[in-house]
Design brief:
Elements: E1 2-6, E2 14-15, E3 18-19, H1 21-38, E4 42-46, H2 57-74, E5 78-81, H3 88-92, H4 95-98, E6 103-106, E7 115-120, E8 123-130, H5 135-142, H6 150-164, E9 170-176, E10 178-179, E11 199-200, E12 210-214, E13 220-222, E14 224-229, E15 246-252, E16 258-264, E17 271-276, H7 278-282, E18 293-298, H8 307-311, E19 318-323, H9 329-342, H10 346-358, H11 364-381
Parallel strand pairs: 1-4, 4-5, 5-6, 8-9, 9-12, 10-11, 12-14, 17-18, 18-19
Antiparallel strand pairs: 1-15, 2-3, 7-8, 13-14, 15-16
Helix pairs in contact: 1-2, 5-6, 10-11
């Protein structure tokens, strides 16, 4: 069975105040061309279709246009799950009607853990659509108060799948999660750690034929060749400047082995980091005039009058301009502190703020209260 795996479209994304809809439409047109050329038997979109729970109308229109063309022109099954950026309720709208057109959308966990089965010339392939969930969601669905982490939630899900299914057959799991050992970028929103760690061990998925994941934006495998993140369709932060975006094409054989390739996506405007001296940019020695999204690092020591205004005459899409100067130890310490805080969850940030303001650790009672407030706000944001 030939499967196209993509994820993390983040339709409606804004990068440094720039709306990315036009750029997203450009690469999604390439995706349609890839489907036309490769003729996959099935398409997987592993979460974070939208960038936020209430997407702008331009994002909704783009998704409608792409899915309509895929369904009407190719009529191959499309399997979609919700990610941590999607609103389960909004993305689920019309899902029962869409099934009649081979569009399958799963946004909420159920005790049944229904699978979808499609046949090729070698027999059935079973697909398990597991949308992004918080540990609290799993506790509620399975009525199991021992579930306190993402790891325990996924263990419960997979144990139930294995108890019901013949794992000697071919099984594909579609998920949106953070596997331990996966490489992060700055453009992913860290998953909530309320109720436990966000990390999941890859060994849980060793009995599946293929695991199609979303959430991490860099294309990569985790531990096993059959556990893959397809990555995002565009670079959404300068930490991804060196990455090549792609979709993942899988050929799943009868013996459960896979043949995998990544098909590159070419952006309308690349996102790049360039450094050099001001005069080199102005004279065109460093880089040709371009509409790419740029982070320019200037190496000059002296003052420069209106550098951004002058540079934008040649490079209109400068998103960030900095002077690369030697940092003092104090500045480096401050930078390290900022980086550490960027890795913290909402709850951890509040706990740190509380200690800085009060000069004492937060009490367990207050910590539990704040964690519950943050959890409620997260659920409201996702439209639950």
């Amino acid at each position: 069975m030939k499967i196209l795996h993509t994820a993390d479209w983040h339709l409606g994304k804004i990068v440094n105040s720039v709306h990315m809809t036009e750029d997203q439409a450009h690469v999604l047109a390439q995706l349609i061309d890839i489907v036309r050329e490769e003729k996959p038997d099935l398409i997987i979109i592993a979460g974070d279709i939208y960038d936020r729970s209430i997407p702008p109308k331009e994002a909704v229109e783009l998704l409608d246009s792409v899915l309509t063309q895929l369904i009407t022109e190719f009529n191959c099954p499309i399997l979609i799950i919700s990610g941590n950026h999607d609103s389960p309720d909004r993305l689920q709208f019309g899902s029962r009607l869409f099934r009649e057109n081979n569009l399958f959308i799963e946004t909420k966990l159920t005790t049944e853990l229904r699978s979808l089965t499609f046949d090729d010339e070698f027999g059935p392939v079973h697909f398990h659509l597991i949308p992004y969930i918080e540990p609290a969601d799993a506790r509620s669905v399975f009525e199991d108060e021992t579930i306190q982490s993402h790891q325990q939630a996924m263990e419960t899900i997979i144990d139930r799948i294995k108890a019901r299914e013949n794992m000697e057959e071919r099984h594909v799991l579609i998920g949106h999660a953070f596997l331990a050992g996966g490489m992060e970028t700055d453009s992913e929103e860290r998953l909530s750690m309320i109720g436990g760690s966000p990390y999941i061990d890859s060994y849980l998925f060793k009995d599946f034929s293929y695991v199609a994941l979303g959430h991490l934006h860099q294309p990569q495998k985790v531990t096993y060749d059959w556990i893959q993140y397809s990555g995002s369709i565009l670079k959404y932060s300068f930490s991804e400047a060196s990455n090549t975006k792609s979709v993942t094409m899988i050929n799943l054989a009868a013996d459960k082995t896979i043949d995998m390739s990544r098909i590159p996506l070419q952006p309308k405007r690349d996102l790049r980091i360039i450094e050099g001296y001001f005069d080199e940019f102005i004279n065109g020695d460093k880089a040709e005039p371009t509409e790419d999204y740029l982070h320019i690092r200037l190496l000059d020591d002296g003052q420069i009058l209106d550098p951004i205004g002058k540079l934008r005459q040649k490079y209109p899409n400068i998103l960030r301009l900095e002077r690369k100067v030697l940092q003092s130890n104090r500045q480096l310490n401050e930078l390290n502190q900022i980086k550490e805080k960027q890795k913290m969850t909402h709850a951890q940030l509040f706990h740190t703020f509380y200690e800085e303001m009060k000069g004492e650790p937060i009490t367990k009672e207050r910590k539990d209260h704040i964690d519950q407030v943050i959890q409620t706000l997260i659920e409201q944001e996702r439209g639950k």
